[in-house]
Amino acid sequence: LLCTEPPSREPVVIIGGGRVGRAAGRALAERGMDYRIVELLPERVRDPAKYVLGDAANLEVLIAAGIRKTPAVLVTTHDDDTNIYLTIYCRRLRPDVQIISRARLERNVATLHRAGADFVLS
């Protein structure tokens, strides 16, 4: 995702279908990359082909989104505690995956790195 290798054919998993998650999906699509957005709230689902409805803390939901083969996970919810938990969870599921996580508060950037994020957006 942050390298110069050709785009993976596997979709990038985006956790959180709010403003940041949707913007990430658009940016990936503009670069010819596929993605799946995991979203808890049905009213946020825009394109059912690109969304997986459910709780990202549920393994079956992450499997449906493609966690086993994805080249990267973007954790974009609006809650830092949730992002920390999901970063730890995704890192344990896939030690080799690139994880980019969102921090709303600057004080949580280091915590997200310790949780396993390769890159933190704040």
Automatic annotation (TrEMBL):
Any GO BP: potassium ion transport
Origin superkingdom: Bacteria
RCK N-terminal domain span: 9-121
InterPro entries, sorted: NAD(P)-bd_dom_sf, RCK_N, Trk_Ktr_HKT_K-transport
Protein name: Potassium transporter TrkA
